[in-house]
Specification:
Elements lengths: L1 H54 L1 H12 E5 L7 E2 L5 E13 L7 H12 L3 H8 L6 E7 L1 H10 L4 E10 L7 H4 L1 E2 L5 E3 H5 L1 H5 L4 E6 L5 E6 L7 E4 L3 H18 L3 E7 L6 E7 L12 H4 L2 H4 L9 H10 L8 E3 L4 E4 L2 E4 L6 E3 H6 L3 H11 L1 H10 L28 H6 L8 H12 L3 E3 L4 E5 L5 E4 L4 E4 L3 H17 L13 E10 L6 E14 L6 E8 L7 H19 L4 H20 L1
Parallel strand pairs: 2-10
Antiparallel strand pairs: 1-8, 2-3, 3-4, 3-5, 6-7, 8-9, 10-18, 11-12, 11-23, 13-16, 14-15, 17-20, 18-19, 21-22, 22-23
Length: 597
């Protein structure tokens, strides 16, 4: 037995000795696995910390700021727009908008139903906004006082009413194309509201509110603000009303597609009225079509037709190639140029240059243009501003279209002499006629007289600017006398204003058919452009009637519209025939004194 026990003990010790290395191996592997696991965990934690402290640092800091503070904007009054006499054309009214902080809304479905009844909005649309992950959403902008009070009475958590500013146009449609309109964010979208938005809008006032974890306010810090500046326009509200009224009557009477009218001071370039019809109400601009909102007097172009004969006449007079009494053969009312026969509206025999413009002879104007020649004529066309922007302070202006002489065909000089193969805007045509009226100077038209800051300081002021001299004063006086004959004995008799001398030119131009590329027999643009009084012009006016179905001549619809606008505007300016007579006498004395000196 003792021998066997010793044998077993020896065998057991030998087994333990044999198992010890294996046990140590397992322990070592466990230690290695544990170390690797700890190292991997430490690596992940270090990477996560690095990501939080480096890559996501800015985002996390911003999120912390949003939790501890709230930045709310207050109302910054948009500047008022006045006419030249201080009458309000565009003002800003205080209003409220309903907003929500979705994370704070306790019961979105219940809140949506209650807001739907108060704001007359679909509950589904409101619920969709309340369930968004955004921190802040608008429910309804520019609500009525009754709606704002109804929402306040609901006392819904996470729903708030914010003070805002709403643009209001007290004259509704009046001067709509000039003023333009603003969007729901109180930013200008068209017209002067867009052109001068940086001045009108000012800068919003921000209130920084520090809050605790439950968004309860601790203290508030207010940032500075700059209220919007006011615009003082050259527009005369009364003349604007007259132009719009007469233009609407003309378009309606003639069954036309549209119409435009502009009234301008020919010496300063100040726009006294700018009208388009059809028009729109900027208070409800979304209900109007794009066509009704388009400022066609500035943004659209047309072929001026016979009204452009004043330009070829100006060049020929300035170059001393013609005199008012020079005679031309009217060829019986037809002339062939480049294989094409161009006809007059009536048969003319021998007529003077003055009669060519008075009776609007195509044959006579073509012969005058041929005397002037391509190069000189193009210089006068571009000199009068055609093919270039007038740089009026309104958005969307078109430069029109004119090809260079090297691109002209054998027919181009004749066509341009009668106002074809060129496209101009109504504003360009008026600026050119103003140069004839004021003694030969091309002036820049403008709408805004001054910009006045909220503290009353004038921060910008527009002044009359002469672009260049295009014809001499002597030529302008001669041409003005010739154009007076258009009204006294020619195609523009309907433009005559009792007690005042009127000068101007009619135009009736055929429109090109887009499908055929040929001139339409039915679609025309009727126009009259002129100035009054002739001796001391106060007003330069253009009237454009697009596609009239009746009264299709410039002399039959545009000229009488010019007359009504001019007569009522002169009356408003307190210009009477007696005053004109005194001006004529004074001008005669001045001229005599000049000759004596």
């Amino acid at each position: 037995m003792p021998i066997q026990r010793r044998t077993r003990e020896r065998s057991s010790k030998e087994g333990e000795i044999a198992a010890a290395p294996a046990k140590r191996g397992r322990l070592r592997r466990r230690v290695i696995v544990l170390f690797c696991s700890l190292a991997a965990a430490l690596t992940v934690i270090s990477g996560r910390l690095f990501s939080l402290q480096v890559y996501q640092y800015a985002d996390l800091v911003e999120a912390a700021k949003r939790q501890s503070s709230d930045r709310v904007s207050s109302v910054s009054r948009r500047g008022t727009i006045y006419d030249r006499n201080g009458r309000d054309l565009a003002i800003s009214l205080g209003t409220s908008s309903i907003a929500a902080r979705p994370s704070q809304v306790v019961d979105p479905k219940r809140a949506a139903a209650a807001l739907s009844a108060a704001l007359s909005l679909p509950a589904e649309k409101i619920l969709e906004r309340l369930q968004t992950k955004k921190a802040f959403v608008w429910i309804k902008r520019s609500v009525s006082t009754e709606e704002a009070q109804a929402v306040t009475r609901l006392m819904l958590k996470g729903i708030e009413s914010d003070a805002e500013s709403k643009r209001f146009y007290p004259k509704q449609q009046q001067a709509a194309h000039l003023l333009g309109f603003v969007g729901t964010d109180d930013r200008g979208l068209e017209g002067l509201e867009l052109q001068y938005d940086a001045y009108l809008a000012g800068k919003r006032k921000w209130i920084v509110q520090q809050q605790d974890a439950k968004r309860r306010p601790i203290f508030r810090e207010e940032a500075g603000e700059v209220q919007g500046s006011d615009l003082h326009l050259t527009i005369d509200e009364v003349i604007q009303y007259i132009a719009e009224r007469e233009l609407e009557a003309a378009v309606t009477q003639s069954g036309a597609l549209s119409g435009s009218a502009i009234v301008m001071d020919p010496f300063s370039g100040e726009i006294l009225a700018l009208a388009n019809y059809p028009t729109f109400d900027p208070n409800a601009y979304t209900e109007a079509s794009a066509f009704a909102r388009r400022n066609r007097a500035v943004a659209d172009y047309y072929e001026p037709g016979s009204a452009f004969k004043a330009i070829v006449g100006a060049g020929a007079l300035e170059e001393r190639l013609v005199r008012p009494e020079d005679r031309f053969d009217g060829e019986g009312g037809a002339i062939q140029v480049g294989g094409v026969t161009i006809r007059d509206h009536e048969r003319f025999g021998v007529i003077t240059f003055a009669e060519i413009l008075a009776h609007s002879s195509n044959v006579g104007a073509i012969k005058v243009g041929m005397r002037l020649g391509k190069s000189l004529y193009y210089n006068y066309i571009s000199g009068f501003g055609f093919g270039n922007l007038t740089k009026i302070d309104l958005p969307g202006e078109t430069p029109g279209m004119i090809r260079r002489p090297k691109e002209w065909s054998a027919l181009s000089l004749a066509s341009l002499s009668i106002g074809q193969e060129i496209s101009v805007s109504p504003l360009q045509m008026l600026v050119a006629m103003s140069a004839i009226a004021n003694g030969g100077n091309l002036v820049r038209p403008y709408v805004v007289q001054s910009i006045v800051a909220a503290d009353g300081k004038v921060i910008r002021e527009n002044a009359p600017m002469q672009v260049r001299r295009v014809i001499s004063e002597a030529t302008s006086r001669t041409l003005a006398t010739v154009l007076k004959g258009v009204v006294t004995e020619g195609t523009g008799k309907a433009a005559a204003v009792e007690g005042f001398d009127v000068a101007g030119k009619t135009g009736t131009s055929q429109k090109l058919e887009p499908t055929t590329g040929r001139y339409s027999r039915q679609k025309v643009v009727a126009s009259f452009v002129g100035f009054v009084p002739v001796e001391q012009p106060r007003l330069a006016i253009i009237v454009i009637i697009d596609e009239p179905s009746t009264l299709r001549w410039g002399g039959s619809i545009a000229a009488p519209t010019f007359r009504e606008i001019a007569r009522e505007s002169l009356k408003h300016l307190r210009m009477t025939p007696d005053i004109q007579e005194r001006l004529r006498v004074a001008e005669g004395i001045r001229s005599a004194a000049f000759r004596l000196n």
